[in-house]
Design goal:
By secondary structure, the chain is an all-alpha fold. Among the domains are: about 70 residues, no CATH class; about 60 residues. Helix content is about 65%, strand content about 5%. It has 7 helices and 2 strands, in the order E-H-H-E-H-H-H-H-H. The chain has a two-stranded antiparallel ribbon. The protein is rod-shaped, with a radius of gyration of 47 Å. The two termini are about 55 Å apart.
């Protein structure tokens, strides 16, 4: 017996009285094979008729007794079936869930950004105290470099005031270079810590 799920794929037509009458006659037509008579009998009770089966029965019927094909199909309509929805893979489901969680957290943070206290921004020299301390440190290094250079050149060049002053200037410049190098090292360390902290926060949010 044919049911709606066992119908062959292809063009499907809606049932009409002309088609039902033809199939009823074909189901008792002794000129047809047992298989075609059984198919015709089963199709009589179906809501939709596969055109492929209907055409096979029509061709097997005697031309003198069968109706004209165009007249037989008059009033019938095409029947379109909806495709089966595509199932999502487990990996895609997990990824969509993760994206939904991230979007939900962002929406929550946007909602409470005016309520929740802002996190302090840890930046180098972000406070007046840090800036003042750095300035005093630079002055101290420069002064120390000047004194060391002055004393060294004074001892080397037998208390020559010009050379002593030149040595002090060289010591001052050397102190500035040392302080610049230390500043670059501190800034690089801060950038590395900030990058590591950002990556760890990003991993936690994922």
């Amino acid at each position: 017996m044919i049911n709606d799920h066992a119908l062959p794929s292809g063009l499907v037509l809606s049932h009409t009285e002309a088609i039902r009458s033809f199939l009823t006659s074909a189901s008792i037509d002794s000129q047809l094979s047992d298989e075609l008579r059984q198919i015709a009998s089963d199709l009589v009770s179906q809501r939709n008729i596969p055109y492929k089966l209907l055409r096979a029965i029509w061709f097997a019927t005697e031309s003198s007794t069968r109706p004209d094909l165009l007249r037989l199909l008059a009033g019938s309509e095409f029947v379109f079936t909806s495709p089966k929805p595509r199932e999502k893979s487990e990996e895609l489901k997990a990824r969509l869930k993760k994206l939904a969680d991230v979007a939900e957290r962002k929406a929550y943070q946007e909602l409470v950004k005016d309520i929740a206290p802002k996190k302090p921004i840890d930046e180098p020299f972000s406070s007046y105290k840090d800036q003042l301390g750095f300035g005093l440190h630079v002055v101290l290094i420069m002064f120390t470099g000047y004194l060391v250079g002055y004393a060294l050149f004074r001892a080397l060049f037998r208390h020559d005031p010009i050379m002593s002053a030149a040595g002090g200037i060289l010591g001052l410049v050397f102190g500035m270079l040392v302080e610049t190098l230390l500043f670059i090292i501190r800034s690089s360390n801060y950038d590395n810590r900030s990058s590591s902290s950002s990556r760890s926060k990003l991993k936690k949010s994922q």
